[in-house]
Amino acid sequence: MTSKSRQVSKRHRNSNHPLQRLLNYGHNYRQQIWQATAFSIINKLLDLAPPVLIGIAVDVVVKQQDSIISLLGVKDIFWQFLLLSLITVIVWIFESAFEYAYDKRWRNLAQNIQHDLRIDAYNHLQELELAYFEERSTGGLMSILSDDINQLEDFLNEVANEIIQLITSFIVLIGGAFFILPTNIALVAMLPMPFILWGSFVYQNQLTSRYADVREKVGFLNSRLANNISGITTIKSFTAEDYESKRLAAESEAYRHSNSKAIKLSAAFIPLIRILVLVGFTSLLLLGGMAAFSGKISVGNYSILLVLVQHLLWPLVTIGRIFDEYQRAMASTNRVMDLLDTPIKIYTGNIPLPIHKVRGEIEYKEVTFAYHDRHPVIQNLSLHIPAGKTIAIVGSTGSGKSTLVKILLRFYEVSAGTITVDGIDIQKLNLRDLRRSIGLVSQDVFLFHGTVAENIAYGTFDATDESIIMAAKVAEAHEFIMRLPQGYETIVGERGQKLSGGQRQRIAIARAIVKDPPILLLDEATSAVDNETEAAIQRSLDRITVNRTTIAIAHRLSTIRNADCIYVMEHGQLVESGTHEQLLEKNGIYASLWRVQSGLK
């Protein structure tokens, strides 16, 4: 976890309110936020100037040489209107300039925060242990990194400015009303305000839970879509299109229903606000008009207030939409910040492990490991692997073979015991150094959307073309690559779907060869190849494992018969060990497995 991520995570937990969490996250943009806010306020003040100018114009018409402008020494009516026109032009120009300024500032701020938030969330996600991903769907995580962060962009682009300008209008109108109108008339005109604000807060609280449910439902929907697209081959082969269509329809219906509940509440709010606005406006129209008629206030001031009230009260009709967008954004904020607040359980050590100094001696000392809420997969296991030797681990499915590889890479932390590399506890080693020194070829090969060459060089990004081709030849992949349409520049498709399983496996082996690690982990490395290819790969593995610590996990015993030592694993423990010949002589589990696979039983 980076120091920046730790600081961000700590800041988030200082407050439970989503808006405060968002503001805490954006502390680096505090100056831009204040600038954008100031520009929004100035623009709204200038936007409220035309009603004042209209009132002054009315005052000139009514009072003529006794108007407000005449106090400046301008008595001629023409020059009063000319001066008023000049002021109007200046106000309009500055209003347009500040509108440009706040719009540009808010949009850039939205883009910057959105970018940083997505990168920070993704980087934090990469630091989390594999158990976190096993308990969550890819679609749900994609929904957070994409939909929720985009929702925040929309909020910062528009809604933040609208809220600030609405508050500015409210303050100006309240101050203006009580300055110009008699107190009793001002109070009547402002009477709807407390009810509008109270209703808005009640409305906000009602929407909070409803939009949290909406974001959860869209996460489920995205998860279903991601799973179905990834598994389209299985869906087609089992003619399950109708079945999956119904399941998707059910998820979409749940999302639609959840949204409908929120829409039902927001749609009812706006008509109620209109009624309250109408009460305030008509009260001012009637009582203010009578006050102007009786001479308690000037006709110009009455005109100013009528237009100002329009500027505030009618925009309040949109407060429902503003709160609607606000609640959507806050629901998304909570989901993103909750991801950033997820504690990292696997921390890097501080002891460096230079790859050129790694000998590759590995030792498991009384190791016990259990997956979350499950019985131990490995129990009190001890295993010593000398540097430069090849050992193999065989056993039935679920015996814990692959788990040994995962805990060596620190994908998971052991429950008890220690694992050492060259005598150093791996929890004390720099995590990236540890993983750089290990090459993994898994039975579940993952290729990225890109060229064959890019996938072979993945992880060794400075690899030369010569080293890529050499690795492909050693992995028995060069011939089939050259038969591809663009050779090494052929796009393999998402997850390598344009290649066969055996081809993907050989590219994965070539990738490990390019990495040239001192420790090599082969987890069913030949599980997806035919016998002829297996024999070819086995020859290449025999070459690349020389003077390299290698752990080979296999079901096919023929691929590991030449290992320096073979361990048989059952129920999380090592029950047999020895060379191929020694294990056959023992006539135990290994011998039984060998007879089955070789057709002797």
From TrEMBL:
The chain crosses the membrane at residues 77-94, 163-191, 265-293, 299-323. Residues 362-596 form the ABC transporter domain. It holds the Pfam family ABC_tran. GO terms for molecular function: ABC-type oligopeptide transporter activity; ATP binding; ATP hydrolysis activity. One of its GO terms (cellular component) is plasma membrane. Keywords: ATP-binding, Membrane, Nucleotide-binding, Transmembrane, Transmembrane helix, Transport. It is a multi-pass membrane protein. This is ABC transporter ATP-binding protein. The lineage of its organism: Bacteria, Bacillati, Cyanobacteriota, Cyanophyceae, Nostocales.
